[in-house]
Inverse folding.
């Protein structure tokens, strides 16, 4: 029997609490129960037909099966530059200020490698998408978690970021932010981001903004890009992904844009790590960005309708919910009669008595244990079924 291996990095990881709910969900389905899954944020809408058609066409060309460029093919990077000009009024150099990544998770994780090392620190929001917290740790750095706040707006979070930087030692080199925010749905106005950019100019800080929900917003509100801020390319980089905007989750196409030396540093590291996304996917993504101009708005409209169905339904059964202005999620404080259970036990109860799966808030970090996250990944009929199940099973509402 070989000696047990002492692994690196993973021993400090807490249990991935979402697997607990997945196991219960699978067990319930094996019993023949119909579980409405509003847990895992996996987009269910089909990718644009133009992307599928172009992928199939490009895959027939054997030349496209060779190694590609880790930075992304030139036409794809130009398409991203055109998107930023069209969508945000921002001019970016596709040669020096844009790089393709194999999804935003890969881009963010490897970005932390070039910005941080043991002894460094980053400021990250909490609760948050897990990789935003754990990415700095994987790089050997300290992640100083700053509460995101009540989920209404980002102004208080930005105040707390500035305070944490002033009080901390060593001074954090990176500030991670993401608006609209997963899981709390907190939003930022352009003035909030400008204040942070102005603050960062006088300090040795890189701002890393994950704009995963750039096009998923409701009630006429439009999320800003940090690149719209004056001086942003001096201090900030931003991740833009096709996962949500174009419902292309499995394709793994995202981009890092912004400060030239940071984009170049990630490009240098990636040249050692990969040869980029499969070239037919890059070609399909290029055509999609250039030609499927209305698709993000169509996707957003679907999610807005689902948000209304869920939030209106929950409010009708006595679960007080504020409608989020963006993302594909609803961040819901556990009803007071059940709050002391904590989010894992409450999520278990919801599966067992309501036939609905949700994500426990504690899985997103400190401050999340009084919440669960609903993902808007089922149609309105199924959401209605979930609301009826919750009404029947949560008898204390």
């Amino acid at each position: 029997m070989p000696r047990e291996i002492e692994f690196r990095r993973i021993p400090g990881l807490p249990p991935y609490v979402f697997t607990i709910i997945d196991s219960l969900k699978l067990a319930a389905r094996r019993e023949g129960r119909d579980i409405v899954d509003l847990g895992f944020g996996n987009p269910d809408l089909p990718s644009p037909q133009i992307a599928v058609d172009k992928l199939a066409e490009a895959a027939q060309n054997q030349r496209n099966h060779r190694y590609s460029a880790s930075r992304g093919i030139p036409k794809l990077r130009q398409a991203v530059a055109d998107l930023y000009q069209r969508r945000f009024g921002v001019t970016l150099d596709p040669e020096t200020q844009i790089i393709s990544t194999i999804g935003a998770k890969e881009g963010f994780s490897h970005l932390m490698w070039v910005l941080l090392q043991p002894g460094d620190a980053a400021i990250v929001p909490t609760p948050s998408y897990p990789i935003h917290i754990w990415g700095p740790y994987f790089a050997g750095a300290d992640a100083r978690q700053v509460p995101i706040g009540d989920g209404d707006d980002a102004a208080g979070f930005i105040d707390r970021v500035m305070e944490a930087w002033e009080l901390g030692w060593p001074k954090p080199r990176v500030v991670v932010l993401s608006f609209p925010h997963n899981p709390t749905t907190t939003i930022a106005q352009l003035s909030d981001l400008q204040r942070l950019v102005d603050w960062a100019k006088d300090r040795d800080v890189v701002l890393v903004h994950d704009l995963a929900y750039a096009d998923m917003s409701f009630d006429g509100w439009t999320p800003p890009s940090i690149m719209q801020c004056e001086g942003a390319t001096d201090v900030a980089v931003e991740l833009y992904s096709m996962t949500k905007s174009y419902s292309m989750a499995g394709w793994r196409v995202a981009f890092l844009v912004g400060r030239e030396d940071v984009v170049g540093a990630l490009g240098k590291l990636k040249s050692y790590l990969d040869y980029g996304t499969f070239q037919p996917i890059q070609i399909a993504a290029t055509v999609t960005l250039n030609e499927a101009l209305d698709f993000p708005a169509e996707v957003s409209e679907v999610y807005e309708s689902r948000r209304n169905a869920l939030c209106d339904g929950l409010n009708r059964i006595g679960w007080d919910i504020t409608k989020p202005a963006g993302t594909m999620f609803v961040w819901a404080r556990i009803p007071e009669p059940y709050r002391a259970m904590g989010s894992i036990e409450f999520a278990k109860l919801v599966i067992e008595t309501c036939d609905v799966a949700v994500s426990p808030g504690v899985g997103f970090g400190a401050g999340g244990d009084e919440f669960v996250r609903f993902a808007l990944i089922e149609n309105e009929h199924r959401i209605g079924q979930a609301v009826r199940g919750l009404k029947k099973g949560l008898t204390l509402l």
